[in-house]
Specification:
alpha/beta; Rossmann fold; binds adenosine-5'-triphosphate; binds magnesium ion
């Protein structure tokens, strides 16, 4: 694989469950892969949402658990299109989630040497460090309630993409996530940046949807990714088929919205993570003129 000049690890989150985190991680990753970017999804969820969504059996591969335990090199267990029985695009890779993540904290505690004073929640940092240069984006699909993987994602990420659907609890979860981003800046990851807020499953016919969108547009202003994604049956249908809508409905309006959102996502990335400017030294004449 070609080396990528810059890798950005982006946590995808909202403390609440069932608010569209996995859907956003998978569809946005597909859209970015279509734009020619190399993307890795690290599934940090015991329910292995993105692993299943990508049509991969969580029991068939070693993945996030073994890597975080330090038992496997991430590059050795990442699933790619070259592995059997999947339809991943060439430049979209996956580190699988699994039930075993339930035991992560306890197993790490048991394994830890009494001389090792690295905090447990820094467990993802060396993994991301090792993967830098291999991907344009590493998406961290976080679980709804598992303190260690969520905190580990906050500590290891360069940026955070918040995700919500227009429902009261999901919007409340955003406030909690914003508070956590501020806290983690104070405790160990001072450079963590909010990258944006992506809204999915919008029912344009309901007043509540309209009101909540109006509220987040005011609260999050330029951070709100455009467009917002409407509710559509193609999303759960594709999920049931364990495929992306980029495979099942490549020409659908919703799929097109994700393409536009990926474009806006990259515009925000450019703004918040401007590429380093190299000032070239004045060219020196060779010779003695
Ligand atoms: N645009 C959409 N249209 C219709 N349904 C959607 C849309 N986006 C998400 N959903 C549905 O919302 C539900 C929750 O989505 P998803 O699994 O992505 O949430 P999550 O936050 O990852 O959940 P968990 O916290 O359990 O991991 C799913 O059933 C999904 O199909
Ligand atoms: Mg999920």
């Amino acid at each position: 694989m070609n080396r990528c000049p810059r890798t950005l690890a982006i946590g995808i989150g909202n403390q609440k469950g069932g608010v569209g985190k996995t859907t956003m991680a998978v569809q946005l990753a597909y859209a970015l892969a279509e734009r020619g970017r190399t993307v890795l999804i690290i599934d940090l969820d015991v329910n292995a949402g993105s692993t299943k969504h990508l049509g991969i059996d969580p029991r068939a591969y070693l993945g996030t658990f073994e890597v975080l335990m330090g038992d496997e090199d991430p590059l050795a267990v990442i699933v790619t299109h070259e592995d059997e029985g999947n339809t991943l695009p060439e430049n979209l890779h996956l580190l699988t989630g699994s039930r075993k993540l339930e035991e992560l904290e306890e197993r790490l505690r048991m394994k830890k040497s009494k001389f090792d004073d690295t905090p447990l929640h820094d467990v993802l940092k060396p993994v991301i460090k090792k993967l830098r240069g291999h991907y344009d984006y590493i998406f961290l699909d976080t679980p709804p309630s598992a303190p260690l993987p969520i905190v580990a994602a906050y500590k290891a990420a360069d940026g955070f993409l918040l995700v919500a659907i227009p429902e009261g609890l999901a919007i409340q979860g955003l406030q909690e996530a914003l508070h956590d981003i501020e806290e983690v800046r104070r405790y160990g990851n001072p450079h963590l940046k909010l990258v944006g807020l992506a809204i999915g499953a919008v029912d344009v016919r309901t007043r509540l949807s309209k009101e909540l969108i109006h509220y987040v547009s005011k609260e999050f202003k330029d951070y709100l990714l455009k467009p917002t994604i409407q509710r559509s049956t193609i999303v759960p249908t594709a999920q049931t088929q364990q495929k992306s809508i980029f495979e099942t409905h490549p020409d659908h309006m919703i799929t097109q919205y994700f393409r536009e959102m990926a474009q806006d996502f990259e515009a925000k990335i450019e703004r918040f993570f401007p590429a380093p400017q190299f000032i070239s030294a004045p060219t020196q004449e060779v010779g003695n003129g």
